[in-house]
């Protein structure tokens, strides 16, 4: 399988004030291939969010290189990064981040506006995507008319709509009860079976166990990287 | 690059999701724009009314007024009507000059009460020579005009305005009837034709006209309040002014009379009214600026409130430019729609006020108010939009 994203010797240092520096990542090497289902696990403050931002190319490393499909993104402009995110990354957030008072379909169509799809293309792709998460019948509902689990599925449909190389889910079950959370993980597993590459960031071991590979991070370094049974 | 039409759609959707706030934000602009249009229309209406009044005096007219009117310093004094030293002798002398002077007329005007069979109306009584009636373009719709012979004989005859036919005679034919003015009886010999629409509460169709000498007797006056001198043509106006000044200076001091031609008088008055109109518009424009600050305020609040939305949009591929344009268009939409509603309200307001005071909605005030409000949308929208576009997506997504 082709290499999708590759981090080599990545460090990230944040400046807090004039003298104080915090190292969030201290030399991380990580390769993710197409079709993988990787869970990134670690306690809070471990650097797992920073790592997620690198993988989602929301942020650039202080030193080291991040390559997306063989292309170094470390020196790209904000404009170019936005374009790459639009094309390659589908985000799923803990708090769903759906636009309020906006229908499920319009929420799902959002990334397509920025990729320049026409209104009819957007509608067709949006409906297709909602169909994949089983919410086509509810496409006219606004977030407040949907349950938490349903809202997260709309968010997943939004991540899927551009047919991205990678779906990056940041604590997707964090705001859900265990039953709804379980359904979301099952959905992600199904999507992986259909060929989607998925990176799941979580602090719950139990959820991480359902991925195919677990990467554990602690104090800005990867401490274990192994396949699950 | 996404098409601008898509961003416009996004902006409008965002505004519609917050209808109450959008309307309240627009309110400042609505009030500002309608105030500008309304106040300028009042100023302009006043200007048109006065111009119209002077134009009814006829063209190529030079007017002699008592006292000092105008002056080198640009000041504008009122004519000294009560202390007028002009008299009918001056009128005779001027009319004998000939040459560039075609005709000479004179008149006085006094407020008075007019009654018929117990009904009384307070109005203006004008005493005019036959020539002056012509200069003022007065005509009768029935009966006859005042004549030179009425004037020479000082007959108690009167022409009444068409408004009095209704208010005093209840529409009946007034010709030949006796009306009472200032305790004396006068015979109605003609009804004046309806003129203009008037304004400022002055009923231009309800005044009465007597022969000048009759009016002088009635009011116990020896002087006249204005002498009209008609020039042969426009080009001879300076010559007429020179001749009139020369003749009158033989008897009167320079301070006792003023000679103005109607067009320069109108120009002077218009100049003053222009300043007044601009001042009114300027004061109203302040409320436009306040409206703009209101928009900026709300847009800044909106950016803060929608931080997570902005973060999300950036995460899914919105470029800083896309966010910038979206927020600018939101504020421009608010100001342009507000401006449009303001234009409508200003226009309707001017129409409503027109029942009491003459108003004229001018194209430039509408264009200016609308243009300024649209510009305000851009100017006051830039700062909030720039702030939104610079938000770091990571920080924005974390924002609680």
Automatic annotation (TrEMBL), chain A:
- ABC transporter domain location, by residue? 5-229
In the UniProt record, which is one GO cellular component term?
A: plasma membrane
UniProt-recorded name of the protein? ABC-type antimicrobial peptide transport system, ATPase component
GO MF entry, a single one: ATP binding
Q: Organism, per UniProt?
A: Candidatus Woesebacteria bacterium GW2011_GWB1_39_10
Per the record's keyword annotation, is Nucleotide-binding included, yes or no?
yes
Q: Which InterPro entries match?
A: AAA+_ATPase (IPR003593), ABC_transporter-like_ATP-bd (IPR003439), ABC_transporter-like_CS (IPR017871), ABC_transpr_LolD-like (IPR015854), MacB-like_ATP-bd (IPR017911), P-loop_NTPase (IPR027417)
Task: Name the SUPFAM superfamilies for this protein.
Answer: P-loop containing nucleoside triphosphate hydrolases (SSF52540)
Alphabetically list the UniProt keywords.
Answer: ATP-binding, Nucleotide-binding, Transport
Going by the entry's taxonomy, the superkingdom of the source organism is recorded as: Bacteria
Automatic annotation (TrEMBL), chain B:
Pfam families to which the protein is assigned, alphabetical: FtsX, MacB_PCD
Report the family membership: Belongs to the ABC-4 integral membrane protein family.
Membrane topology, as annotated, equals: Multi-pass membrane protein
Its cellular-component GO annotations read: plasma membrane
Q: Which taxonomic lineage is given here?
A: Bacteria, Candidatus Woeseibacteriota
> What are the TM regions of this chain, as residue ranges?
23-43, 278-303, 324-357, 363-383
Asked if the Swiss-Prot or TrEMBL record annotates the protein with the keyword Transmembrane, the reply is yes
Q: Which residues form the ABC3 transporter permease C-terminal domain?
A: 283-393
Q: What is this protein called?
A: ABC transporter, permease protein
The record's subcellular locations are:
Cell membrane
**PANTHER family xref list:** ABC TRANSPORTER PERMEASE YTRF (PTHR30572:SF4), MEMBRANE COMPONENT OF TRANSPORTER-RELATED (PTHR30572)
- Known InterPro entries for this protein? ABC3_permease_C (IPR003838), MacB_PCD (IPR025857), Macrolide_Exporter_MacB (IPR050250)
| Major localization listed first in the record, in broad terms | membrane
Question: MacB-like periplasmic core domain: from which residue to which, for each copy?
Answer: 22-245
Q: Which UniProt keywords apply?
A: Cell membrane, Membrane, Transmembrane, Transmembrane helix
Q: Which GO terms describe its molecular function?
A: transmembrane transporter activity
